[in-house]
Amino acid sequence: xxxxxxxEILLQYFLKRESTQFFVSVAIxxxxxxxxxxxxxxxxxxxxxxxLAPTLLFWAAIYGLFGLFVVFGGKIMARIGLKHTMLISQFxxxxxxxxxxxxxTNPFMVILAVLMRSLGMTLxxxxxxxxxxxxxxxxxxxxxxxxxxxxxxxANIISPVIGGIILANxxxxxxxxxxxxxxxxxxxxxxxxxxxxxxxSDTYTKAWQRIRxxxxxxxxxxxxxxxxxxxxxxxxxxxxxxxxxxxxxGGITTFGLLVATLFALYIGRLxxxxxxxxxxSFGSYLLSLVWIVKCFVKDTLTxxxxxxxxxxxxxxxxxxxxxxxxxxxxxxxxxADEFLIYREVVLNLSKMGFLTLMAIIFVFLPDLRIGFLFAxxxxxxxxxxxxxxxxxx
Length: 393
Fold this sequence. Notes:
Layout: H1 7-14, H2 18-34, H3 40-47, H4 52-80, H5 82-101, H6 108-135, H7 141-170, H8 172-185, H9 204-213, H10 215-241, H11 246-273, H12 276-294, H13 300-331, H14 336-364, H15 368-381
Helix pairs in contact: 2-7, 2-8, 4-5, 4-6, 4-14, 5-6, 5-8, 6-13, 6-14, 7-8, 7-11, 7-13, 9-14, 10-14, 10-15, 11-13, 12-13, 12-15, 13-14
């Protein structure tokens, strides 16, 4: 008897587990976004003639609309299923990058870009987080979060360098096309398993009520939002202003992700075995210190060292933080999706508020290191997630 193995058979065998399908999808998605992510704030900064205030307001608008739209996204997710929601979201990201490419030809493209990205995020992230919570088990969740972080970091290891090379040699058009094709490919592994449907019942009023009922969680999420805005927006702009080239920015990001990938798997296992709240507290204090250190970056070498320090600290804090959030969501059982959407409301509206405040400050004092100091405070505040400020947190 003879056996024939085709690439399709091997692929189906490799992707037969739902968790593997999910992680492969994550890897492809982060490979796509890693090629462009660190350069997007710089692109917008150049569009606004190196003016920090409108650059920050651009990102504030995206996160603000996401925070407001996400309840609507939950209702779409419940109607068409998690996987189809994630698939549809990619077309909004496609429109976003298309709008960025034509942004110099028509000022309306700025508004379109903001709207398309916020809608893409509105559809993708609630479905993504809900899907992860549904197929992971409590006893393995810390390790699975470590795998999720490690895979996303690993996919991003080479992508910033690829993006930097494409950008330096061919420009943003080619970069956007490569990103879009890869982004669409990321969804297809998810459809090798059955669609999953949720019953999302929250109204806007109920979603807002959760903020008051979960004070410690809300403070922790708001703090994460401030810290995340710092690394996603302020850090790339800071490196660009320090005249670090696109290739060097890609190299710094790549090496930092390599360090984080190796460290994430270890922290994931440690999160399973040890108390998550203690790990979170240690990581948040370390992360706060790193943001102070970043204020003293002067050149490529110091940026390289500071960013590697940052990746270790962020991994130490973020994996236990994320695991606690997923545990809390899973404990809600049928209301897990409602909890995760409440998470997005707090997280993204805090980003909007922080970036808007910084835009106002930068009109009078345009120094990105002020943002670093706020990010340092935000890093400390992440530890609130593991504390009980009231009986319902």
